[in-house]
Specification:
By secondary structure, the protein is α/β, with parallel strands linked by helices. Helices cover 24% and strands 23% of the residues. This is Putative cinnamyl-alcohol dehydrogenase.
């Protein structure tokens, strides 16, 4: 067992950390490991924020440990590489997503599915294999094994690429795997409209899909249709709208991160339709079986994507200039990062 005070943890770093589950962040001085043989050290330029950060900061999933430095959609520029690094050099623009390590020897790892490795390590809030905490991207520098680093192309701009490393791959992977990525099939993708939902709509549109947004809130209609470019909009508690849409959808990507009923969504699916859950509500969802049997429907889950697919996703995004709306703030001791957390909790973290 190694502690962060041991010799290899010599790089002084600064970040913002939650010290408990109150939801408040404060400045945090800590150390990162020195650049090891296969490591890439980089200066963090941008880091996204999403609802998973809030779940972690507030310990809503029940496994957070403190201090916790959030942030898992991170882009930056390489400042140092270890002697056995092959893919990157100093000055390269790179990114790190939701994971920083896995066992590298199980079947999942062998099949480019490190995200499903039983020993995967979360970028933020996880515990590294040496027992030290994994501190996320709300910090000035990061160190990561090159296998868990991706190359970020010139486009999209770096600040746009950052949230794609979480939300982009979370949408891209299930659309591909479940065959919901073919515009010729008139596949429709339906999402909730939170932080992940916004990126999902943009990304699904960039993939050429028809997108219907379902939301509890009718006042998101204009935002969904005009600003995000969705093709249609449904209010989930409007019985007549939902009734009219029944049996019309090939696929649903459910990004809602709070507890919600599944049956109304299942009813929207065609025969053989697929409901893929990518949000992670802290409470269990109820799954009545009968509506599934009636249409050979599938309810599935999906969690980010492997490293190979994450690189593929960002390369796909390279020429999609309007993928994400972002606004950003500097990471500095004098600038209160809590503003971003509060805005996200209030679901207002959108560029105007
Ligand atoms: Zn593994
Ligand atoms: Zn995220």
């Amino acid at each position: 067992m190694v502690s962060s005070t041991d010799n290899q943890y010599t790089k002084k770093a600064f970040g913002w950390a939650a010290r408990d589950s109150t939801g408040h962040l404060s400045p945090f001085d800590f150390s990162r490991r020195k650049t090891e043989e296969k490591d890439v050290t980089f200066k963090v330029l941008y880091c996204g924020i999403c609802h998973s950060d809030i779940h972690m900061i507030k310990n809503e999933w029940g496994f957070s440990t403190y201090p916790l430095v959030p942030g898992h959609g991170i882009v930056g520029v390489v400042t140092e590489v270890g002697p056995r690094v092959q893919k990157f050099k100093v000055g390269d623009k790179i990114g790190v997503g939701f994971m920083v390590a896995s066992c590298r020897s199980c079947d999942n790892c062998a099949n480019n599915l490190e995200n499903y490795c039983p020993r995967w390590i979360l970028t933020s809030g996880g515990k590294c294999h040496d027992g030290t905490p994994a501190y996320g991207g709300y910090s000035n520098i990061m160190v990561a094994d090159e296998h868990f680093v991706i190359r970020v192309p010139e486009n999209p701009p770096l600040e746009v690429a950052a949230p794609l490393l979480c939300a982009g791959i979370t949408i891209y992977s299930p659309l591909k795997y479940f065959g919901l990525d073919k515009p010729s099939m008139h596949v429709r993708v339906v999402v909730g409209l939170g932080g992940l939902g916004h990126v999902a709509v943009k990304f699904a549109k960039a993939m050429g899909l028809k997108v219907t947004v379902i939301s509890t809130s009718p006042n998101k209609r204009e935002e969904a249709l005009t600003r995000l470019g969705a093709d249609s909009f449904l209010v989930s508690h409007d019985q007549s709208e939902m009734q009219a849409a029944m049996g019309k959808l090939d696929g649903i990507v459910d990004t809602v991160s709070a507890a919600h009923p599944l049956v109304p969504l299942i009813r929207l699916l065609k025969t053989d339709g697929k409901l893929v859950i990518v949000g992670a509500p802290e409470k269990a969802l109820e799954l009545p079986v009968f509506p599934l049997l009636m249409g050979r429907k599938v309810v599935a889950g999906s969690k980010i994507g492997g490293m190979k697919e994450t690189q593929e996703m960002i390369d796909f995004a390279a020429n999609k200039h309007k993928l994400s709306m972002v606004k950003h703030t500097l990471l500095d001791k004098s600038i209160d990062c809590n503003a971003a957390v509060v805005l996200l909790i209030e679901k207002k973290y959108l560029a105007k």
